[in-house]
Amino acid sequence: MFFLDSSDPKDILDLFAWGVLSGVTTNPLIIAREAGAVDLGERIRDVVRVSAGHVSVELTAETEAVMIEEALGYHAWAPDRICIKVPFNEVGLRVNHALVQRGIPTNVTCLMSFNQAYLAALSGATYVSIFSGRVRDMGYDVRPVIAETRAQLDREGLRARIIVGSIRHFMDVNEALSAGAHVVTVPPGILRKMLHNPKTDETILEFNTAWANRGK
Ligand code: E4P
C-alpha cells in the first residue's frame, strides 16, 4: 500500500487521481519546506479535502501535557481522518499511550531500529514509521529492521502497521515492500519516477505509429 509523503494540496490532488494512494504523511520539515509560513490548520484542512484515508500530522511540542493538548487540537480538525504523528522517545511513548486510550489513531515516527518499532507497537500505535534513508545514512541495512518488526507484529498479533518512509529512490520502495512493510510513504517525485521505463515508451510509440500508418 502507498501513502503520499507530502503536504502540497496540488501534488496530492494530482496523484490521488491515479487511484494508487491510501493516505498522506506530513512532518514539520515537509510543511516548512513546502508551505513556509502558511497556517498549519488551513494547510492540513486542504490536504484532508483533496485526499483519502489517514492524514498524519506531527506533534512539535516536547512536553507531555502540551503534546496531548496539541494532539487533541489537530485531531479535532477532522476526527475521522487525522492520525497523530508522535516522535519516538520516552515522552512520545507516554503521549502515544494516552492518545490510544482516547481512541485516537497514532503514527509513532522517527524509528531507526527494531527495538524502537516494537516498543511503539506494544504501546498501541496504529502505525510505526521506520525511516529507510536515515537508517542507511548511519551505514545500516534497513531491510532486517523492517523484516524483524513485521515478523514480531505477526507473531504477537499486534495491530500496528509498518510504514516505511524516508524514501530516496524507487528501489527503496521495492525493498521496503519485499522486507514486509505494510505501507510505503512515497514522495511525489519518486512516485512519478516509478511510471517510467524506456521500453514501455518505445513499445507504446511503436503501437501508435503502426496504428497511425495503417493501410498506408
Ligand atoms: C515519514 O513519515 C516522513 O515524513 C519522511 O519520510 C521523512 O523522510 P526524510 O528522511 O526525507 O526527512
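^ erythose-4-phosphate complex. The two ends are 46 Å apart (CA to CA). The chain is about 50% helix and 20% strand.
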